[in-house]
Amino acid sequence: MSTKIIDLVGNTPLVDASSLLENKNVKLLLKLEGHNPGGSVKDRAALNMIQSALERGEIDKNTKLIEPTSGNTGIALAMIASVFGLSIELVMPENSTIERVKTMRAFGAKVTLTSADVGIEGARDFVEDKVKTGNYYMFNQFANPDNWKAHYKTTGPEIWRDTNQKVTHFVSSMGTTGTIMGTSTFLKEQDKNIQIVGVQPSDDARIPGIRKWKPEYLPKIFDASRVDQIIEVNEDDARQMARKLASQLGVFSGMSSGGATTAAIKLGNFLESGVIVSIVCDRGDRYLSSDLFEY
């Protein structure tokens, strides 16, 4: 039976990583979002944002789409846009890995690089200025409810189903915060006692995919009441854990996933019992030109 590539978004596997814990009364499960066709958790949000905008008649094949991205959302949008015959321009900092840039271009997207000095915030400002002055449509993943609703519709239900309703803690890195907002909303509706744990970088850390936003850039979809606890991780721990996941468990992922797993282990070793699900948000192959896996 044939299928479309977008039908392969979601239903990603859970892998048992309990061997990483000292506490044998806790189970740690990693949700491998790199198994999405575009290679990351962002496929879910990209698909929902594009499909919903099409269904509402906000965009069509003549619309000039534009979006700022640090990488994974851009790849996902480029892939989904290609399926629907849409043109899109993606704006990202010039220090993004070349794998990201080439993948977006392979899907047919136009890629514009902004100064590394101003980071993703600068890319966001660039796009917002362009939208004000031209005929562009920005999905605005940071303020678009279709971002978090993707996870309410899919990620949360999958976790609830695949843990046989036994999940007690959900751990996710926070960037746009769509993953944690949508998954939290669904899981809390099933059991209000499930604990939602967000992961942020420590003040001196630079971890791609995890952000501690300045107030003026805080995603508008973020609702602090949906997160029970925030654990901070440093860059070295996130880096070392990404390497450990690959070399010991065969889980090939990026640094933000290393950060989330580090937080999940910290959490798990102090619980009396529980089932933790932590998001592994992408694949490690889009970091090979960086020094992440240089030992």
Automatic annotation (TrEMBL):
List, alphabetically, the InterPro entries matched: Cys_synth, Cys_Synth/Cystath_Beta-Synth, CysM, P-phosphate_BS, TrpB-like_PALP, TrpB-like_PALP_sf
The EC category is transferase
Q: In which pathway does it act?
A: Amino-acid biosynthesis; L-cysteine biosynthesis; L-cysteine from L-serine: step 2/2
Has UniProt tagged this entry with the keyword Transferase?
A: yes
Domain of life from the UniProt record: Bacteria
Task: State if Amino-acid biosynthesis is listed as a keyword.
Answer: yes
> Which PROSITE patterns does the UniProt record give?
CYS_SYNTHASE
Q: Name the Pfam families for this protein.
A: PALP
Print the keywords alphabetically.
Answer: Amino-acid biosynthesis, Cysteine biosynthesis, Pyridoxal phosphate, Transferase
**Domain Tryptophan synthase beta chain-like PALP positions:** 7-282
Task: Identify which cofactors the protein needs according to its UniProt entry.
Answer: pyridoxal 5'-phosphate
* Reactions this protein catalyses: O-acetyl-L-serine + hydrogen sulfide = L-cysteine + acetate
Signal sequence residues: none
Q: What is its EC number?
A: 2.5.1.47
What SUPFAM superfamilies does the record tag this protein with? Tryptophan synthase beta subunit-like PLP-dependent enzymes
Tell me which PANTHER family the record gives.
CYSTATHIONINE BETA-SYNTHASE
The similarity annotation says: Belongs to the cysteine synthase/cystathionine beta-synthase family.
Q: Tell me what this protein is called.
A: Cysteine synthase
Which taxonomic lineage does the organism of this UniProt entry have?
A: Bacteria, Pseudomonadati, Bacteroidota, Flavobacteriia, Flavobacteriales
